[in-house]
Each structure stands twice: as C-alpha cells, then as structure tokens.
Amino acid sequence: MVSNKTQLRLSLEKFIEDPKKEHQDKMYQILLDSKSSISGFREITVLTLDQKIVASTNLEEIGREYSELELSDLTQNKNYFGGLHTHENQALEVHFSAPLIKDEKLLGFLVIDSNLDNIFSLLKDYSGLGITGETLLAKRDENGDALFFVPLRFDPEAAFKRIVSKEAKSVPITQALLKNETLFTDAVDYRGELVLGANDFTTKPLMIEDIVPRVRRYVG
C-alpha cells in the first residue's frame, strides 16, 4: 500500500535525477502520513539502489547506509517479510520491504520496521478454538528447522527459542513450511500431543487478519 503511492515514487525519481531537499521533504511527508495511519509501524525508510537512506520518518537516519537487511533480500524485486529482531526495548519487530518501481524501472526500496503487537493480539484470541486450539507462525532457521517467532498458547516463552526439527514430517508446522496444504486429523504437535491441524495457502497475499478466521473455520 505504501510502496504503491505514486507521489512517493515520483519524488524518489526526481531526487535521483536532481537531489534537492524539496523532493526529500515530499517523501518525508508521505512516510509520516503512512506511519500515523497504520498502527504498529515504528519507522519507514526509502533507500536508493546502493542502500543509502534518502527519506525516513527518523530524520537522523538520512544519508546513512541501511544495513538491517541483506542486499540479496532487497534485490528480489518483490515484497519481502523477514528480518525478525528484538528492538532496544526488547520488543519483537519485523522488517517489511518492497521495491519502488516507476515505468518498469527499479528506483529503490521501501523498508518498514513494525512491531508485532497487532499480530500477537490476534494470535492470543482463542475464541472459536476451544480449550487447546491455537494459530502458529514459524519460519525456517539456518538449519531448515521450524523456529516459532511468536508466543505459543502452551509456551509463552517460545518466540525465537522453540524449534521443531525439519525431520519431524508428521508435525503440521513442518508441512506448513514445506507449503503442503493439508488437513491433519491425527497429527502430533510441538508438544507431542495429538491434534487436528490445518495448513492453508492462497495465491494472493494474506494479512494475519485473513489467516486466523480460516483456521477457525477448519476447527469449527
């Protein structure tokens, strides 16, 4: 939504051609408006192709090189979700990035640092999931295992600590990371307990608000 703002891309293009402060000011105002309208966004940044920060909701960052994401993550020409980390206040945050493209030309990148409070609040809503149901989110770690990056219903300290081996093919979260859309009627979860599980995928982008109701429909 933010990266598709026409004026943002136009101002970046003008700044690249003629690096005047007036173009940076326009980008800054767009970023500021976006940050104020979307709960959870901590900081929004515009980068050139060499990862130099040319606009940001944090004015102290202007002119610096952005090093929070690997260059390979930024050059995929598609939206990227990752870079989970702990901020200085110990709150979990995530990086979102997207290419800024105008007339099929890649100009730079938009990076959003967001907290996970809105995701956590949805995952902690167990209405319709009975006394044991929950929604799980995990990613692959450097070994290819499933690493939970959110607290779990039966393990509040699981974030970035609890791992399920990639060899545990019968565990639903392993199949989810293999992108296998399956309804499990007799599976074993991360606790070793028998569960009903469901992995659900779609070809269009999903927000977490879309995922949770789908899981509830399976359980219902």
Describe the secondary structure blueprint for this structure.
Elements: H1 6-17, H2 21-37, E1 41-48, E2 53-56, H3 71-74, E3 80-86, E4 92-102, E5 105-115, H4 117-123, E6 138-140, E7 146-148, E8 163-164, H5 172-177, E9 183-188, E10 194-198, H6 208-219
Antiparallel strand pairs: 1-2, 1-5, 3-4, 4-5, 6-7, 7-8, 9-10
Helix pairs in contact: 1-2
The CATH architecture term of the largest domain is: 2-Layer Sandwich
The amount of beta strand, in percent, is: 25-35%
Class computed from helices, strands and strand pairing: alpha+beta
What is the tally of helical segments? 6
CATH names the topology of the largest domain as Beta-Lactamase
Strand order of the largest sheet: 2-1-5-4-3
What CATH first level of the largest domain would be assigned? Alpha Beta
Précis, in short:
The chain contains six helices and ten strands; from the N terminus they run H-H-E-E-H-E-E-E-H-E-E-E-H-E-E-H. With 220 residues, the protein is an alpha+beta fold.
Q: Explain this structure to me?
A:
This protein has 220 residues and is α+β, with helices and mostly antiparallel strands. It has two domains: 6-115, PAS domain (Beta-Lactamase, 2-Layer Sandwich); 118-219, no CATH class. 26% of the residues lie in helices and 27% in strands. The protein has helices at 6-17, 21-37, 71-74, 117-123, 172-177, 208-219, and strands spanning 41-48, 53-56, 80-86, 92-102, 105-115, 138-140, 146-148, 163-164, 183-188, 194-198. Strands 2-1-5-4-3 form a five-stranded antiparallel sheet. A three-stranded antiparallel sheet has the order 6-7-8. Helix 1 runs antiparallel to helix 2. The longest helix has 17 residues, at 21-37. The model is unreliable at 202-209 (pLDDT under 50).
